[in-house]
Design goal:
The protein is an alpha+beta fold. The protein contains eight helices and 31 strands. Strand 17 and strand 18 form a beta hairpin. Helix 1 runs antiparallel to helix 8.
Length: about 725
């Protein structure tokens, strides 16, 4: 019995549930995951349906898409997107159905790289190089830490952060001159034919006879000192008579194998003490060319305490290479004196006429100069009245005095008439009163001219070395060199620890590359695989246009950069910076240094121009390590919202009811009584079309619900009564 009651209850509850089922919400979920190209994509779809008390139904579909992983560019990807589609359906009282559809998408994506992507183009440049100045023999470091943030056209916000530290260590730089051959043309004239020493000019022409030593086995010592071309004597000239040898047939002066005029005899008339050895002199150097011809070069003595040694061999060097100067400014001043002084030319640079012209412009019409007369009293002259009386001897003497003063500091010697110190010009040309036959006793006007010429030369503005040509040698090659480490171009080598980096060498030369120079710089090193690598670049001068990829221009600071190196960190590289080619030496001031040092023979200074073959190498060992942190983050967000679309379905129009036909009268059933007393009614068919409409079933559903509920209550009460009777 209890079992029957339970079954009846279950049926009644089920009926009740079915009647209210349209009022509940339904939900359904799906998830799909795929992996492709290192990116895992997950798509989650959720559908929700709800109906409110007014009968409005909302169906919502939410699609969540996520992408994570590493893409082909090496970026770590974090992609999120949510798409929401919604459909709202509402039936109005008049039967109209209104459907509204809407869609909205919201997303974000973040990509992060450990290296800056090659295809990332930023409007603002970011510096990823670290310039490390390699100080020979020391460890140096450099770093760069820079952040750039900008928004790209598609709305992506990119942040690039570079933090790189480089430490480099080098050995001492060793410079070696492999080749250094000069081919210079001297400014001074080579032919002094017809110029004879005479009383008026006070010049001695010719040379001294000296021995010739064997040429040293050393690079660049190609110039032989074999005599002088012009000299003055501290005493008056009429007490010395020089006779030059001449060819008996042609009558031309005889020149020896070194290019000097041969002096036949020197007759000394009178008594004097200085002699030729103390005379201001322009010396001659001879170089034998490859074709056997000879070239001649000229120079003044630059030191005052070393004798000229005939037969000494010389090389060409820069003016600053001498160690005689008391300070750096003295070299600049000396360059100005040599450039503006006397060199025996007929006109233009180095001529006596140009000296007179420049002196007149410097002093003007009213300048005066004061000296002492024979009795030691001051006497004053107007310089403009003296300039026209200048002789070649005066010009040479004043030039030599100014050169000695700048190269050695103010000249001080104890050759004064009373043993007192005499400085500058007077130690060179001052006549001595104790000389028995000197006709120059206190020639005050000439003394005044020499003093004015000397003081003008000493007052010239110095010419700095950076404005002059510099001879390339082991002392004047590299000023400094930097290693520039760029981007990582390869993963660690076989050790698994050391990355390969793009690198460049930035170097500053100790000379200025000229327009006519043909110089090539080669960077040589052994790479991490033991293979020798060479990068060759031609050096262009400032202001010129680079012709092709093989030529490099100087940077704004005058330095040069050779890129394209590939170096492994934490490995030693033997570096060679090799310079080769031809340097054209513009007209400038150079010195001639004797083989054996400054005390072997006088150091000379001269003016020349020409060219030299260059082959010089600077070598050192380089190693570096890199601590690098690059972070590139690209972030973008988006939101797409479509305008809602509404669809209206009007209610169906009700058809007008047809006029009711008059119903026929109810059928009359015939009743027949059988013999056995049974009643038989004759059946007639009833058409279904004639059945009346039943109307709305609302009442029936309500009755069903009420009946089910009452039945359930009765069953419940009956069960309680039975339990009560049992107890």
């Amino acid at each position: 019995m209890a079992k029957i009651r339970r079954m009846i209850s279950l049926c009644l509850v089920l009926c009740l549930f079915v009647t209210v089922l349209p009022m509940q919400a339904l939900a359904a979920d799906t998830t799909e995951t795929t992996t492709e190209g290192g990116i895992t994509t997950t798509v989650e779809t959720t559908t929700t349906t709800t109906t409110d008390e007014n009968g409005k139904t909302t169906v919502t579909i939410v699609i969540d898409t996520t992408k994570t992983g590493t893409d082909e560019s090496g970026a770590t990807v974090d992609f999120k997107e949510t798409q929401t589609d919604s459909t709202v359906t509402e039936t109005m009282e008049d039967g109209t159905v209104i459907t509204t559809e809407s869609s909205e998408t919201v997303g974000s994506e973040t990509k992060e790289w450990d290296e800056i992507p090659e295809d990332l183009e930023l409007s603002e440049e970011i510096d990823t190089d670290v310039e490390v100045e390699l100080i020979p023999g020391e460890t140096t470091t450099g770093s760069v830490n820079e952040t750039v943030t900008e928004t790209l056209e598609d709305g992506t916000e990119v942040t690039v952060t570079v933090n790189k530290e480089v430490s480099a260590e080098t050995s001492e730089i060793e410079t070696e001159i492999l080749e250094n051959e000069f081919d210079l043309d001297a400014l001074s004239p080579e032919d002094y034919e017809g110029k004879h020493w005479n009383n008026a000019e006070g010049l001695l022409h010719g040379g001294f006879v000296g021995g010739t030593t064997e040429k040293p086995d050393a690079e660049g010592y190609d110039y032989l000192l074999n005599g002088y071309i012009e000299a003055t004597n501290a005493t008056r000239a009429e007490y010395t008579d020089v006779i030059y040898a001449k060819d008996a047939v042609t009558g031309e002066p005889i020149v020896d194998e070194d290019g000097n005029y041969v002096i036949e005899t020197i007759k000394l008339n009178g008594k004097y003490e200085d002699g030729l050895s103390s005379s201001p002199t322009i010396f001659t150097l001879t170089k034998t060319n490859d074709d056997g011809t000879k070239s001649y070069y000229y120079g003044y003595c630059i030191d005052s305490d070393t004798e000229a040694l005939p037969g000494a061999w010389y090389s060409v060097a820069n003016l600053e290479d001498s160690d005689y100067y008391p300070d750096l400014e003295s070299a600049d001043q000396l360059r100005a004196v040599v450039t503006n002084g006397y060199w025996g030319t007929a006109s233009g640079m180095g001529s006596m006429a140009q000296m007179q012209e420049k002196m007149a412009a410097y002093y003007g019409e009213d300048a005066t100069v004061t000296v002492e007369d024979a009795n030691g009293n001051p006497i004053t002259f107007k310089v403009a009245d003296l300039i026209g009386n200048m002789t070649e001897a005066d010009a040479l003497t004043a030039t030599q005095a100014a050169i000695w003063s700048n190269a050695n500091g103010t000249i001080e010697t104890n050759d004064g008439k009373d043993g007192t110190v005499i400085t500058g010009i007077y130690s060179v040309i001052k006549p001595k009163s104790n000389l028995a036959n000197c006709d120059r006793d206190y020639d005050s006007a000439r003394d005044a001219l020499l003093k004015a010429t000397y003081e003008w030369l000493m007052a010239l503005e110095g010419i700095p070395s950076e404005e002059a040509e510099t001879v390339i040698n082991d002392q004047n090659y590299l000023e400094d060199m930097n290693l520039v480490v760029g981007d990582k171009i390869a993963e660690p080598d076989e050790t698994g620890e050391n990355d390969i980096y793009e690198a460049a060498v930035n170097f500053t030369l100790a000379f200025v590359v000229g327009e006519n120079d043909e110089l090539t710089m080669l960077v040589k090193y052994i790479d991490e695989n033991g293979v020798e690598q060479t990068i060759s670049k031609k050096l262009a001068s400032a202001g010129s246009e680079a012709a092709g990829e093989d030529t490099i221009l100087p940077e704004a600071d005058g330095s040069y950069t050779i890129s394209g190196l590939e170096l492994s960190e934490n490995q030693e590289f033997n570096f060679d910076l090799h310079l080769q080619g031809t340097q054209h030496l513009e007209q400038g001031v150079y010195i001639y240094q004797a083989y054996g040092g400054t005390k072997a023979s006088q150091t000379l200074v001269g003016i020349a121009e020409g060219s030299q073959d260059v082959s010089v190498t600077a070598s050192m060992t380089v190693s570096f390590s890199v601590d690098e942190e690059n972070r590139v983050v690209a972030e973008r967000t988006w939101e797409e919202k479509e305008d809602p679309t509404t669809t209206v379905i009007p209610p169906e129009e009700e058809e007008e009811p047809e006029e009711e036909e008059e119903l026929p009268p109810p059928p009359v059933f015939e009743v027949n009584i059988e013999d056995d007393g049974a009643v038989v009614i004759e059946e007639e068919p009833v058409p279904l079309a004639d059945a009346p409409k039943t109307g709305s079933d609302t009442f029936i559903w309500a009755l069903v619900i009420l009946t089910a509920a009452m039945g359930l209550a009765v069953v419940r009460a009956f069960g309680r009564k039975r339990r009560h009777e049992t107890f």
